[in-house]
Amino acid sequence: MRVIRKEYDQMTDEQLVIAMAGGDQRAFDKLYGRYSSALLSYFMRMLWRDREKSEDFVHDFFTKLIHRPELFDTTRSFKTWMYSVASNMCKNEYKKQEIRKNTSNGLDHTYAVSDASKNTESEVHHALFKEAYNYQITQLEYKHREVFEMRHFDGLSIKEIAEALEISEGTIKSRLFYATKYLAQGLKEYQPEHTK
Amino acid sequence: MNTFDEIIQTKAYRDLTPDELSIVRELVSSEQEFNEMKAFYTEIGQLSVSTREEVSSSVKSSLNAVFRAKHPGIQQHWSTPALEEKKVAPLYNRSWFRIAAIFVISAGIATIWFATREEHFPSKKESVQLAKMEQTAHKTDQKEEDNTTSLKTKKQFPVNEVTSRKYTASSTISKNQSAEDLSPLNSLAAPITYLETDKENTYFLLEKQESTTLSANSPGLSSMLRAEKKSDELSGYFAKAGMDADLNPTGNKESFGRKEVKTPDISTNDLLSLIEPSF
Questions:
Q1: Measured between alpha carbons, how far is residue B206 from residues B145, B146, B191 in Å?
Q2: In this predicted model, what pLDDT tens digit does every residue of A115-171 receive, in sequence order?
């Protein structure tokens, strides 16, 4: 069994997709384990932190991959291709629903309200920052928000973001600069230095 | 932007180089803004770690069912090799190559065998001719041998009844007979027979055989030519041997075989005319 596990660990994402297309269940399990959490986090951030909808989107993405693996171009990176498909899915969802800029407060209902009596000061500060961020990020345009979160939360480089969104690196840089400056300015009050 | 991220997260404002300072000033204008941006990056980093979500198990179960529906009959414990090397059979293992090699070798062996067979065993026609020529050559050799032996015993010797032979001679010369009793013989072209006659007198004559048609290619040709040459020499001797016999009754053995024989002053035609045939 160790030999088999080692083989799948050494296989690239593209090789796993090819094996999965051939009916290899283990290859699919390996690919799912690598990217299911990251994909869910992305959808959570992009879809107003709606967990149920985000898991549905994850299920839809892998179902599409099982039924039509030929949609994936093996010459491309699977990671960038996955984010490209996820971005299109979110854009389609935005088109179906109104963008609610005037939601109650943009807060994530799943976030537990920190109990000051039990948590330390840093933990309280962290919880407050998170809430403020969630609000501020919704104030950004989708194109800026997408680039910012793909850079800081999904760990993609400027080049990978440009490849996934099929736009130039210069545009990515300018969008990223704008989002960073806007959020830094908006969350200035929630800095640890300022909260002391 | 990567460079900006690295500078913000790793360096202090006072440690920035002029190039790094020019990059940072795209976002911040002072040291205070630089420090605020640095705090913002730290908070965002912590936020990204804390927002990691795990997918519920129901999603995975549902996806497994979808996969099994798409690929029925595939066992989960099978592993697909990443790469399969296509085995290329070597040339000598291919059936068509083996068949062609056997054919070529057989053709070569057959060609060599037939070629050597013709060298050792000539064609039928040639073999028949060869047989005939060998027969004639054998006969010539045999006669040559006979004549050789007869020439050796050219000198007169008493013949007893055992050794006496009766021949139908074309010409005989008796010791007691004079040359006048002898009938002339023909020229060298005519066959001259040397015979052993009565008991007391024996003279041997060589029968010359005409060499007529002989193939130049026959192996017996050389022996026949030799025989002919010898017979020519011997006939030359014997043509004069009769005369020698007349003039040299003792039969000087040494005179035989010498190429240059001293001849008497008597002409051959005169003597031949004296020899009468016995039949």
A1: 11, 9, 9
A2: 444 457 777 777 788 888 888 888 889 899 999 999 998 889 999 999 999 999 999
Secondary structure in 3-state letters for B112-169? HHHHHHHHHCCCHHHHHHHHHHHHHHHHHHHHHHHHHHHHHCCCCCCCCCCCCCCCCC
User: Which chain A residue has its CA at the smallest distance from B39's CA?
Assistant: A191
% pLDDT > 90, chain A: 44
ipTM reported for the complex, 2 dp: 0.77
Given A51, A153, A184, which is nearest B40 (Cβ)? A184
Extract the tokens encoding A3.
């030999």
- With residue A193 as reference, give the H or E element that holds it: helix A192-195
Helix axis angle, A169-186 relative to A121-139, nearest 10°?
130
Q: Is the pTM of this model over 0.80?
A: no
Whether residue B143 contacts residue B207, with contact meaning beta carbons closer than 8 Å, is answered with yes
Residue numbers in B near A107 (CB within 8 A): none
The answer to whether residues B201 and B176 touch, using CB atoms and an 8 Å cutoff, is: yes
Q: What angle do CA B186, B191, B192 make, to 5 degrees?
A: 75
Q: CB A45 to CB B44 under 8 A? A: no
Which range is least confidently modeled, B108-117, B127-136, B238-247, B267-276?
A: B238-247
State whether A191 and B40 contact (CB < 8 Å).
yes
